Amino acid sequence: MPTPNYVKINAERVWQRHMDLAEIGKTAGGGVHRLALSDKDIEAHVKVAEWAQARGFVVELDAIGNMFVCRPGSDPSATPVASGSHTDSQPWGGRFDGPLGVLTALEALEALEDAGVTTRRPIEVPVWNNEEGARFMPGLSGSGSYTGVMDLEKMLDCTDDDGITMRSCVEKLHAALPNVKHRKLGQPYAGFVEAHIEQGTILEDAGEIIGIVTDIQGNRRFDVKVTGESAHSGTTPRARRKDAFVAATDIAVALRDVFWDEEDIARFTIGKFEALPGAKSVVPGEVNFFIDFRHPSKPVLKELGDQIEVVAERHVAPCSVAVTQASSADPMQFSEKVTGLIAASAARHGYPSRHMISCAGHDARHFVASCPTAMVFIPCWKGISHNELESAEPDHVAAGAQVICDVLVDMADWA
Ligand code: GLV
Ligand code: MN
Ligand code: MN
């Protein structure tokens, strides 16, 4: 067996790329506000495309707004391997959630270019559109539409809170990148690996640098609409009120008890809660809130998730309630073929590592059905993420980039 052509990544360059990208949509609190296909997210795509084109890589766009940086291999007929993530952020989010997966993979391509190494298979860096789902629901819709898990037309028709369609934003992205090729959805990969910050404290607490991600937990998301009756806040006695806020908070408190588990495994969140009409002297006639529930066990997702409607009905009187499941994803397992390569790379470089589960969702989940796939985690400060304070160490970013580069070299030589 010939020795793989491993190359050394450039630690300063990959860190500087993170700092430069974080200037786009930078917030006063040190994070980024770069919602999917907002002007700032489009600017971030253009910046990555400029870096890629300056190195001679081909840039392509597809119909759902995914962008691809492509480096050819020696066998043009071979199916490519890929590593990538996203540039969109949560509202007032962090600098590393998403960019780490894009920029470590871009660094791998640049390091191969610097060393003059040609792999057998082409290598691609996809920038998946709308990973976060903060602007357009559901998230992961770029990779979901690419792999056929989600319906392209339905996703293009979906709107943000201002009624702007994803379709019009994708058109804007294409207009901002007139000199790139168009590509078809669904072109297969022979392997996929994604780097990400852990968004938890396991690696940091253990003093480890590389997480070898074996699984992603599942989730179920629900829209809850409580309907009461708007009324005068000064004149309406309790007996005549149908206060949707009171009913909704009773439901929320009851659900907190139902989802409380001793081991602290279930993740139950109400992150969006809106009382209408939202006037200071009006008893709210309607409340809409959103539940994000995650768990590694499929039976528990079913059993506890199905409780939401039952509990809501029990606590809603004198108002009424409608519970609708907005999206769901099963727990899934990554490929041992790829986790083995990640573990071997970490060991070669002396990076302390562990096998672990991802509690967050990632685009990599959509490739598990079609090719060997896994993820690489690095620590982030205090596990803080989806927050402007999100932070990672330059040395850990470099370690993540080195592992991604090694795994891409290995996969690109697969028969
Ligand atoms: C992705 O950002 C998630 O919320 O899991
Ligand atoms: Mn992410
Ligand atoms: Mn995220």
How are the SSEs ordered, and which strands pair?
Elements: H1 11-21, H2 39-54, E1 58-61, E2 67-71, E3 81-82, H3 99-115, E4 123-127, H4 141-147, H5 152-157, H6 166-176, E5 181-182, E6 191-197, H7 202-206, E7 210-216, E8 218-227, E9 231-232, H8 244-259, E10 267-276, E11 282-283, E12 286-295, H9 298-315, E13 320-329, E14 332-333, H10 336-349, E15 353-358, E16 373-378, H11 394-412
Parallel strand pairs: 1-5, 3-4, 3-6, 6-16, 7-15
Antiparallel strand pairs: 1-2, 2-4, 7-14, 7-16, 8-12, 8-13, 9-11, 10-12
Helix pairs in contact: 1-3, 1-11, 3-11, 8-9, 10-11
Bound molecules: glyoxylic acid (GLV) and manganese (II) ion (2 copies).
Brief account:
With 415 residues, the chain is an alpha/beta fold. It has helices spanning 11-21, 39-54, 99-115, 141-147, 152-157, 166-176, 202-206, 244-259, 298-315, 336-349, 394-412; strands spanning 58-61, 67-71, 81-82, 123-127, 181-182, 191-197, 210-216, 218-227, 231-232, 267-276, 282-283, 286-295, 320-329, 332-333, 353-358, 373-378.
